[in-house]
Write a structure and sequence with these properties.
Elements (H helix, E strand, L loop, with lengths): L2 H14 L2 H6 L1 E8 L5 E3 L1 H14 E12 L5 E12 L13 E13 L2 E9 L1 H8 L2
Parallel strand pairs: 1-6
Antiparallel strand pairs: 1-2, 3-4, 4-5, 5-6
């Protein structure tokens, strides 16, 4: 499986809400850099993160562009996230079903044909403005 196909499969699983398929593409010790947050390590931590996201948000990745290094060890993805804020997430404004659209960048490292690092970036101030925070 090529790096680009792996990333496309990752986001296809995300759009289906198929967390187990997403998790199967990660190394056991995956490093996850949460946007403007801390690094979480391990597939179990990533599963917990997905559970929180599923409760508070409904999101879909659109306009996905994948760029890979020549050796396939790293990749970047750029896309637009279309979402709805369903349930108040801790430390964030109250959820009232607000909809939002954000450009997102993600960076990946690979090991043994799996994703070993996921780093996500989006403009939190833009999201806050869209949801009325």
């Amino acid at each position: 499986m090529t790096t680009e196909i792996l990333i496309r499969d990752y986001y296809a699983a995300f759009n289906r809400g198929d967390w187990e398929a997403m998790l199967s593409l990660l190394t056991e010790d995956v490093a996850h850099d949460v946007n403007q947050g801390t690094r979480e390590t391990g597939r179990d931590a990533f599963r917990t993160f997905l559970g929180r996201m599923e409760r508070a948000y409904r999101e879909c990745v659109e306009d996905l562009v994948v760029m890979t290094s020549s050796d396939g060890a790293r990749a970047a993805a750029e896309f637009t996230i279309h979402g709805q804020y369903l349930t108040t997430d801790e430390g964030l404004p109250a959820a009232r079903g607000q909809r939002y659209v954000l450009p997102v960048g993600a960076f990946f490292e690979f090991r043994d044909r799996r994703i070993a690092r996921v780093t996500n970036y989006y403009n939190l101030a833009d999201w806050l403005q869209q949801v009325g925070g």
